[in-house]
């Protein structure tokens, strides 16, 4: 069954907010590209989102918020972030900052990182939905992983129509390119992904912008970023049972100290992965992990687990 393309009437915006609250996926217009939106606080909805995109691993997602107060609730806005926000928000600019203690965005949406990417979109339909929904919305581009980003509702219907619950039509995206991403955790902000807001425009606010990677076709790999998060404990993968002193992270019939999904459901396992790793890491030095099938979301789970098991490269 294909999702219908809905005009952005107040009723449909309300319907979109209700769909998000119920754990559904809604394609939304933004000024950059169409986003595949899910409730950023709901790990099950985020797991569904990764599955719908067919992502081979869990990229950290951008959380979209309605206003600066909500941004400050999710992340610690540094001086650099506040000055850039004053100039460029709402708009096609995303900041990476440390997560705040009041952060409502789940671990899975942040790919287990202690940082968060935040953006206030300028598109009136995205803004209205954020206002009505009231919380942070995670939204990567609404295309299958590795394919071209959609810039109108028809693209989304063609590529993802059977994977989303609703498509809000807000006309063609005016920018057509994903937002510029700036890491604001460093004393001097660093450009992580080029976009339509140019380095020169940013340098009018922050003269010493560091160029992390200026090539829009090769944004800094989230895979590299994932290395920054690794449990303190050592991980032994594909384990059938725990050895003495190990905690066991089970899956399906291979039970353990904790079980990612006793019924062997990969979406449930993805939902629990980061929280369970964190919880075992707090109490054990060694963690054995049951085999996870490689089908569907299992590929992303295994990718994440093998990164977490490789603690040597952590910087
Ligand atoms: O224009 C856009 O930004 C679109 C529209 C829909 O808003 N959204 C978008 O979101 O491109 P997304 O989730 O696909 O962007 C994810 C990228 C990651 O690949 C990574 O480069 C960066 O955002 N990112 C997210 N969290 C990060 C973090 N904590 N640290 C560094 N980079 C992060
Ligand atoms: Mg994309």
Write a short abstract of this structure.
This protein has about 325 residues and is of the alpha/beta class.
Structural class: alpha/beta
Listed once per kind, the bound small molecules are: threonylcarbamoyladenylate, magnesium ion
Shape: globular
How helical, in percent, are the residues?
25-40%
Low-confidence stretches: 214-221, 223-229, 311-315
Largest sheet: 12 strands, mixed
What string gives the helices and strands in order? EHEEHEHEHEEHEHEEEHEHEEEHEH
Mean pLDDT: 88
Distance between the termini: 46 Å
Structure characterization notes:
With 315 residues, the protein is α/β, with parallel strands linked by helices. It is 31% helix and 17% strand. The protein has ten helices and 16 strands. The strands form two sheets. Strands 1, 2, 3, 4, 5, 6, 7, 8, 9, 10, 11 and 12 form a twelve-stranded mixed sheet that branches. Strands 13-16-14-15 form a four-stranded parallel sheet, covered by helices on one side. Strand 11, helix 7 and strand 12 form a beta-alpha-beta unit. Helix 1 packs across helix 5 and helix 2 packs across helix 9. The protein is globular, with a radius of gyration of 20 Å. The termini are far apart. The relative contact order is 0.17. Bound molecules: threonylcarbamoyladenylate and magnesium ion.
């Amino acid at each position: 069954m294909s999702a219908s393309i809905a005009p952005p009437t107040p009723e449909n915006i309300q319907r979109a907010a209700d769909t998000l609250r119920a754990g559904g996926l809604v394609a939304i217009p933004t000024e950059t590209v169409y986003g595949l939106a899910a409730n950023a606080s709901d790990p099950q909805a985020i797991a569904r989102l990764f599955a719908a995109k067919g992502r081979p691993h869990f990229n950290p997602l951008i959380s979209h918020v309605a206003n600066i107060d909500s941004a400050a609730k999710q992340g610690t806005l540094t001086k650099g972030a506040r000055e850039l926000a004053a100039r460029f928000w709402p708009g096609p600019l995303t900041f990476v900052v440390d997560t705040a203690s009041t952060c409502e965005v789940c671990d899975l949406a942040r790919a287990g990182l202690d940082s968060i990417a935040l953006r206030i979109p300028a598109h009136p339909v995205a803004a209205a939905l954020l206002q009505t929904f009231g919380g942070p919305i995670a939204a990567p581009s609404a295309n299958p992983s590795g394919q071209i980003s959609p810039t109108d509702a028809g693209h989304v219907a063609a590529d993802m129509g059977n994977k989303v619950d609703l498509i809000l039509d807000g006309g063609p995206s005016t920018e057509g390119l994903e937002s510029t991403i700036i890491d604001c955790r460093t004393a001097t902000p660093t450009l992580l992904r080029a976009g339509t807001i140019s380095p020169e425009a940013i340098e009018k606010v922050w003269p010493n912008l560091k160029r992390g990677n200026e090539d829009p076709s090769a944004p800094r790999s989230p895979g590299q970023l994932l290395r920054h998060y690794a449990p303190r404990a050592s991980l032994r993968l594909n384990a059938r049972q725990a050895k003495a002193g190990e905690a066991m992270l089970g899956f399906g019939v291979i039970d353990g100290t904790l079980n990612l999904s006793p019924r062997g459901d990969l979406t449930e396992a993805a939902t629990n992965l980061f929280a369970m790793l964190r919880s075992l890491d707090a109490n054990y030095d060694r963690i054995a992990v049951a085999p996870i099938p490689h089908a569907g979301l299992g590929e992303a789970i295994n990718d994440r687990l093998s990164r977490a098991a490789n603690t040597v490269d952590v910087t």
